[in-house]
UniProtKB/TrEMBL annotation:
GO terms for cellular component: cytosol. Keywords: Aminoacyl-tRNA synthetase, ATP-binding, Cytoplasm, Ligase, Nucleotide-binding, Protein biosynthesis. PROSITE patterns: AA_TRNA_LIGASE_I. A motif ('HIGH' region) lies at residues 22-32. One of its GO terms (biological process) is glutamyl-tRNA aminoacylation. The keyword Protein transport does not apply. This is Glutamate--tRNA ligase. Catalyzes the attachment of glutamate to tRNA(Glu) in a two-step reaction: glutamate is first activated by ATP to form Glu-AMP and then transferred to the acceptor end of tRNA(Glu). ATP binds at residue 257. One of its GO terms (molecular function) is glutamate-tRNA ligase activity. Residues 129-142 have a biased composition (Basic and acidic residues). The gene is gltX.
Amino acid sequence: MRALFFAIPFFIMTTIRTRFAPSPTGYLHIGGARTALFSWAYARKHGGTFILRIEDTDVERSTPEAVQAILDGMNWLNLNYDEGPFYQMRRMPRYKEVIQQMLDAGHAYYCYTTPEELDALREAQRARGEKPRYDGRWRPEPGKVLPTPPEGIQPVVRFKTPISGSTSWNDLVKGQIVFDNSELDDLIVARGDGTPTYNFCVVVDDWDMGITHVIRGDDHVNNTPRQINILKALGATVPQYAHLSMILGDDGTKLSKRHGAVSVMQYDEDGYLPEAVINYLARLGWSHGDEEVFSVEQFCQWFDLDHITPSAAQFNTEKLNWLNNHYLKLTDNERLAEMVRPRLEVRDIKVSDSPALSAICGLYKERVATLNELADAAEVFYIDLHPEAALLDAQLSAEAIPAFGDLMQLFTTVAWDAASIGAAIKEVIGKHGLKMPKLAMPLRVMLTGQTQTPSVDALVALFPREMVLARIEKNLAKKTA
């Protein structure tokens, strides 16, 4: 795909075209991921085209690592794009071409005001109680005599913003929004070194790429009238806009690093499934009746912009954990094992063939919220376990010790399946007049170091027979020593 191309005439457009355009100055965070999801889903719903654009003109802050983090995050969430990724830095000749066209047409002009002059201007305006803004001193107007351009000053290029009337649009989330043009000063579209500015690049990109719907965060609302005015000056069709409200943290404040994940990929590291994160993001500010759980396919069928709330959405970690547990329970045990294995290996735990990791995942997946918790549960099956002495002392009573001797004898010969193991346990507690917890609880501790596990017969059946006998014998020896 060529990074440079000319504008697509709107009249030949036959499909919805949306875009996700992150700046690679940081990682793909959860708010950006929701914007990408909604843009992607809207294109999918209408059989349209979804474009990925990397807005990397902030050379000082953009990094290859951040670009890769965006691509990794999109890939993990399975938000496949139809065109791109396009990089703004590779489109500089196109931007400069359009700037020259605007200068030639009188829609832009050179401004020689220095940064020091602008600072002084703004300070004086604040002192008078006015809104700080550029005063148009280099703006050409009929009958206006401009100063002589000073030597040694590289001028910026400013867009001639309409000075009367208003700019409005029917926001597909927030409704009608109106800005008085008198509140908008003449935007810089090219810096003194010739590099174009953010708002200008966005306009040219959306025009060239035939974007029909711009879905983005509401922090861009103030940029929208400026972009609309430039599009109109270029004779381009103005896309429809939908501005998504911010996401708040669990505590009701603006979502930030202190609320959890910095990057979408942190959710992968924390043990969440991408389908759970997608399902959760879909419900952050959008709804379809009372539906809480749905597939990606259902989401794309149902998604619309009419049911996006204009008020802020609130992140709820408890609900995300609930959803993740739901998807863990639905996930094939072999796939779970493939995802849990590297989480064990990074802890220097070697996963053996017995017990099968997939079987462990199958037994525990209904009891955990994340893959990391599943790895925690699986870990005890592959390490040299040493239960806490205090815990063992609290659970293993003197009356149960003889029962464990009989249990070991039965475990030596019994068929190694949950039903036979369960029958052996019941036989021993009946013989010794014990209640089930008197034997089951210390047995859990001996095998896993924990008191809370799945049913004890299914748990025991997962371990190799020799390991069960060895762990019981080792812990009995500690108790009777």
